[in-house]
Structures are given as C-alpha cells and as structure tokens.
Amino acid sequence: MKRRFLINKIVLGLAWFCAILGLSFLLWILVVLCERGIGSLSFSLFTKDLISDGLRNLIIGQLVLSGLACVISIPLGIFAGIYLQEYANHKFAGLIRNLNDVMLSIPSIIIGAFIYILVVIPSGGTNGFAGVLSLAILVLPIVVNTSDNMLSLVPKELREAGIALGASKHKIILNIVLKGAKAGIVTGLLLAFGRVIGETAPLLFTSGTSNFFNLDLTKTFPSLSVSIYNLANNPSQASRNLAWSGAFILTFIVLLINIIGRFLTRNKG
Predict the structure, then answer these.
(1) How many angstroms separate the CA atoms of 69 and 136, rounded?
(2) Domain ranges (residues) in the chain
(3) Residue 203 in contact with residue 112, Cβ under 8 Å?
(4) Cα–Cα distance measured from residue 51 to residue 156, given in angstroms and rounded to the nearest whole number
(5) 194 vs 6, 62, 67, CA distance in Å?
(6) 156, 211, 151: which is closest to 181 by C-alpha?
(7) Cα(65)–Cα(71) distance, rounded to whole angstroms?
(8) Which of 5, 65, 230, 244 is the most exposed, having the fewest neighbouring CB atoms within 10 Å of its CB?
C-alpha cells in the first residue's frame, strides 16, 4: 500500500512538473511578445500599408485569405460530417475517419508544396487563389472531425423521435441533429479559424506577400504571417519592430478566437 502511494505521488509530481514547465514556456513567450510588441504599437500601423511602415494591408490580407478558406471548407466539412454520421456504413466511415486523421497530422508546409506544384507553377507565380486553396485544405479535416464528433453526441433517441413523428431524413438532420450539435460545431469552427489564421509555411509557397493593399486574388497577395517572417530577417531595426508588432497583433487575434471558442464550450456544458 505504501509503495502504491509513493508511486502515485511521484507520478503526480511529474505531471505537475511537466504542466508547470509547459506553462512557463508559454508565459515566457507571451511576456517577451507583449514587451516588444506593445512597445512598437501605434495607431498608424492600422491606417498605413507596409510600404509606409504600417500593417493595414497585411492584416486585411490575412483575414481575407483565412476567411475565404473557411468559406470553402466549412460547408464541405459539415456535409462530410453529416454523411459520416447519418449515411455512411460503419466500415467506409471508419476508413474516411482514418484518412481524415492522417490529413490532420500532415505538416502544413507539405500542403504548401503540393499547391505550389499544382497551382502556382502552372499559373506563373504566387497568387491569392493558391493561398486560399492551401489554407482550405488545412481547415477541411478540422471541420470534418469537429462536425463528426459533435453530431455523434446528439442522442439517437432524438432521431428516433423524429422518425416516430413521420419526419423525413433531411428534416430530422436539419431541425433536430444539427440544432442539437450547433453550439459544439460553431465552437469547433472558431477554433479551426484560429488555427489557420496564423499559418505561415503554406503561404510562403502559394500567396507570398505584398507591400501594397491588394484584393486581386490572381496576384501576389498580402499576408501578415509571411511578412512577419520576412521582416524578422531584415537587418533594419524598424523592420524588426514591425515584425514584433505584427506578431503581437496576430497572437492577440488567435488568443481572442480561442477564448471565444472556450467560452462557448463552457456555456454549452
């Protein structure tokens, strides 16, 4: 009995140590980011483009790329989740889920290289369409996984009640199943958006970045994450300050989205 208690205390102590160590690194990153990022913030960052030492075009460009990627992926992912839960047989659904898990674990830079070969080279250069497509591929498996899991939590009794009332299959899905899983799905979509808005690797190959405001997706498209990478490698101190400001803004957006998602999850519970 004493040995079991000793082992339990050792394992519990290791768990606490690992948790504190991980949180310490996170806190360290946030403190350094806030210290250097907030010090470089100014109102002109949001009113001027990069060519004038501002970040307006980059912030808008990042939001456009991520938003369009979600517009493409969210309907496809939700329909795929509905198919897996409501229509697919057990073996085929298991195969699709395994493939989706593989997609979730693929490094984003591989997606970028794939789109570079498939779209960028044939089109003659980096462009916004390629960036949107690469981000959409990253978002899609997250949405599929979220939709599938949330729909599986809806009790079967609710479906059976709809059948007993004579409702058709699609009405049961729309009016009962999706409504029951709505809060969880919305939370997952927010987290997926927060995940993809900070991506850099795929955009390096696909959309590139631009110093000017531009909404033409057929041309090189402004991107905050790619510009942060470029500015951080610039020997100019002013450029590095811009990189810190951009990193702080991007981190703040990601944290805000994640906090909203967690808040919705808490209310659901």
Answers:
(1) 4
(2) 40-268
(3) yes
(4) 57
(5) 42, 12, 11
(6) 151
(7) 10
(8) 5
Per-residue model confidence (pLDDT) at position 266: 65
Rounded Cα–Cα distance for residues 211 and 200 (Å): 16
Q: What is the mean pLDDT of each run of 10 residues along the chain (269 residues)?
A: 83 93 90 85 86 89 93 92 88 90 90 93 92 93 90 85 83 85 82 85 90 89 91 88 90 84 63
CATH class of residue range 40-268:
mainly alpha
Q: Determine the pLDDT at residue 269.
A: 45
pLDDT of residue 144: 92
Identify which of 36, 174, 150, 164 has the alpha carbon closest to the alpha carbon of residue 85: 150
Question: What pLDDT shows up at residue 267?
Answer: 54
Cα dihedral 187/193/196/198 (nearest 10): -110
What is the distance of C-alpha 180 from the center of its chain? 24
Query: Which two tokens mark 144?
Result: 């599929």
- Other Cβ atoms within 10 Å of 160 Cβ, number: 11
pTM recorded for the entire structure: 0.85
Structure-block tokens of residue 150: 């949330």
Q: How long a stretch of residues is the chain?
A: 269
DSSP one-letter string for 143-170: HHHHHHHHHHTS-HHHHHHHHHTT--HH
Q: State the pLDDT at residue 114.
A: 93
d(CA 266, CA 118): 42
Could you tell me which of 29, 50, 32, 33 has the C-alpha nearest to residue 242?
50
Q: Give CA–CA dist 122/133, Å, rounded.
A: 15
Distance CA 78, CA 60 (A): 26
Give the N- to C-terminal CA distance of the chain in Å, as an integer: 37
Amino acid at 161: A
